[in-house]
């Protein structure tokens, strides 16, 4: 019974129970019972849970702002700056800029932000290839009808391998060949249908006209335009 009384006793000073007669070598340790902790408001450890001031007290952002009140200053809050109408307006133009006239260079004493004009002459238009007036019945639709008519526009029985020496022989108006992108065409039937005129098309007769064709009208599909006039393919000169 002395053991049970020592266990349930509220006396915190009793931490050990004397052994009884039946167990002379037995000693028991009784856990100490502490009183419940009561917060009286004197503990300051809870202050670490408060959020830090943002921006920091000694930061450049806080130094640049002007708190509206002492309460806002303690909490790190500041009212946004409201711009006036004069601050929202664009800056005034540079002296002399409002009196500038198009095409007239500013005087030397003017402090304009724009670079002075090098010339007052309008820019020249880029040179372009002029088209010629085609004879009636020789328009693009007429050429399309001629290709689909089944008429022989090649002038050869079969496709050939044509070296530059052979291509050079066909440089006359009634027998004109040219090579474009590795393919050789008989351009004699197409001469009156050429929008640039026969003279311009004869510049490539008897030679490779790929470069001149690309510089003049690279957007034109030569294979589609002259497919009915194909006579062969351009090859290198045979080695002797």
From TrEMBL:
Pfam family, any one: Cyt-b5
Biased amino acid composition, Acidic residues: 35-50
InterPro entries: Cyt_B5-like_heme/steroid-bd (IPR001199), Cyt_B5-like_heme/steroid_sf (IPR036400), Cyt_B5_heme-BS (IPR018506), Cytochrome_b5/Flavoprotein_Rdt (IPR051872)
Region ranges (Disordered): 12-130
GO molecular function: cytochrome-b5 reductase activity, acting on NAD(P)H; heme binding; metal ion binding
UniProt keyword annotations, A-Z: Heme, Iron, Metal-binding
Compositionally skewed regions (Low complexity) per UniProt: 59-74
Keyword Heme listed: yes
Residue stretches making up the Cytochrome b5 heme-binding domain: 159-235
Cellular compartments per GO CC: cytoplasm
Family under the similarity heading: Belongs to the cytochrome b5 family.
Name under which the protein is recorded: Cytochrome b5 heme-binding domain-containing protein
Organism of provenance: Suillus luteus UH-Slu-Lm8-n1
């Amino acid at each position: 019974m002395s053991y049970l009384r020592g266990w349930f006793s509220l006396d915190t000073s009793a931490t050990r129970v004397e052994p009884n007669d039946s167990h002379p070598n037995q000693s028991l340790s009784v856990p100490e019972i502490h009183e419940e902790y009561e917060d009286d408001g004197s503990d300051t450890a809870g202050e670490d849970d408060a959020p830090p001031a943002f921006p920091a007290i000694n930061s450049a952002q806080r130094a640049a702002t002007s708190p509206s009140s002492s309460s806002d200053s303690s909490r790190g809050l500041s009212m946004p700056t409201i711009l006036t109408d004069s601050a929202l307006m664009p800056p005034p133009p540079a002296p002399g800029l409002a009196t500038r006239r198009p095409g007239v260079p500013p005087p030397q004493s003017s402090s304009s932000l724009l670079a002075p004009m090098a010339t007052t002459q309008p820019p020249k238009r880029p040179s372009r290839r002029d088209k010629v007036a085609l004879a009636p019945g020789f328009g693009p639709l007429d050429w399309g009808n001629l290709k689909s008519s089944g008429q022989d526009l090649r002038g050869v029985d079969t496709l050939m391998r044509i070296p530059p020496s052979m291509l050079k022989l066909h440089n006359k108006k009634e027998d004109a060949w040219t090579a474009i992108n590795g393919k050789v065409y008989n351009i004699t039937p197409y001469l009156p249908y050429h929008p640039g005129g026969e003279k311009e098309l004869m510049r490539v007769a008897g030679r490779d006209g790929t470069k001149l064709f690309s510089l003049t009208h690279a957007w034109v599909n030569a294979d589609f335009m002259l497919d009915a006039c194909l006579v062969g393919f351009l090859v290198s000169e045979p080695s002797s």
